[in-house]
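Example (one chain per record):
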Amino acid sequence: MLKNIRKISFILCFLLLFSLFPFTAYTEPKQSIIANLSTPGDLTVMFTYDAEKVDITFISPSGERLGAGSEGVEMKEGDLWRTYRIKGAAAGDWSVEYDLGSNKEINYSILRDNYGLWIQYFTLGELKEDGIDLSFQADFEGENVYYTYEIYAISSSDPENRNKIMDGMASANEATAAHANLSALPGGDYTLRLDVHYNDGEAEVFDSASTESFSYSNPNEKSEIADYIVKIDKHEHICTIDWSDFTDWSYQNYKLLVVADGETIYKGEFENDVKDSSIVFSEGTKNLEIQLAYRSDSIWSKYKVKKIDLDKEYLSLKAEQITSSSQISLEYKVEKEREVKVSVNGKEGQYKVKDSGFLSFDLEDMGNEIYAEMGVEDSVFYIVDSSVYSDTIPPSITLFENLDGKTFFTNSVTIMGKMTGGNELSIAGKAVALDSSGNFSYVFSLSPGENVLEILAKDANGNAASRTLTLYRGGGVLNKKTDVKSWKSFFPAILGAVCSLFVIILSAFFMKRRGKGEKKRGGLLLSLVLFDGIFAAGTVLCAWQFVERFRFANSLKYLDLVEKSASKAAEYLIWERIFGLCAIGSLILFLLCLTGTVLFLRKKKTVQ
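Predicted structure:
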């Protein structure tokens, strides 16, 4: 029982800890079949939401996925509802895919085929100076209900520009005649669009229809704006439109449209206190079309249109914002002789140019302000307005040891140093890693004889610096054969051991020749003499090892050992210090024992 209680407590604690950590739940999109059409026809579905509107994707019997904006799909929406109409829906099972989002549930209802608001006709009448007569009718299941409608005028030259010209309410199943006021529109070709919709409290039904195109000439239309200035910066891909010198106090608003290579990239309206606008266009754009209109007395003027071929004539900066060059170049192309005004760091000049080519100018170190302007036709100017940072200072290379011209008796040499002001380093054509401070270390393999190598450093702007080293490799290179020591190298150790052994043998022989009465005192003397021999031999051996290791640590052979194994080289230095300390300690002990021996012999002589 107690064991089960512990298990339950452990599980509860685990669940409590797990609940303290936040996690994100991801839901898979849901699918469900909503309708089965026995015959092709329009499919109208209304969805209602309890928290937020989410997108619905319809899946046809053939598997085609349709949504708002798809061809043949219309959508109307309001607060927490959306109604979709799929025109000419294929027969078979239709399903939807959706994500609940923050909704607890999404309800839908299929609107029956004969349920809806359908436009029967929408026709144009007589075109007059101030507008046009029109008539339309929308039917609703035979019931006389009132629906709302809006009529828009859509310009044939700008289909995205919709102007609402009238709205109101009309009775279903009855013809409606109206007169649309067009006096606020500029002259041009237009199409009228009628939108009708009705909400019975449960569902929203709607329909739309358009007329044929017609031409309208507004007798009260304002003439186009006198002019405007266009400045194009091809380097920065910015087009600036300035109409400040051509405005009038009566202008109420301005309308600007910019088209790049046939695609509208900007459309907007401005209040009368705004007199310019800058538009960014994509790199590689070949053609720009700019349209500007104003509104006065509530009537829009004609558009003042300018079409610009960016490859026909141009002026452009051929440099990056940061360069390692001491000069910049302006590239130009003109159809006839033009004048280019240039200012570099406040120094101004004017230059006549023809055909195509470059203008070059000297830069100062650090920051440079560049402005150039070339006027072409129709108040269009190509400009360069840029700041260029000139960095001509190469990086520096510092070697911690001057190796140039030296001879080495090893297979390789380590080149260590520091680079400042750069981001790339190579030695003998091979990239070298740098630490955060720019320090580097590189092992270069030496070939017999002369070795010439280049150290090359570069920075991000292309500045470079180099150093050339000439290194020599001698014949006495450390290898396995030369590293083996002969018996002559151990002669000091052998000599010390033989001498110590000889002292011990003589002491033993001397004690054997003593009388019996002296053996007791002779034993102490023998011990002192024996320790004298041991410490003397230890001093000689340790001193010899220390001297040998000290000489090796200060030779080129030790550098070769460092390159092969840094750990072994460090261990070698540790043993050098150990043997040095042992030699000193053994010498001190030898001197103490020798002093004791001398005092003992002097005392013995005095007693005799």
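Caption: The first strand starts at residue 30 and ends at 37.
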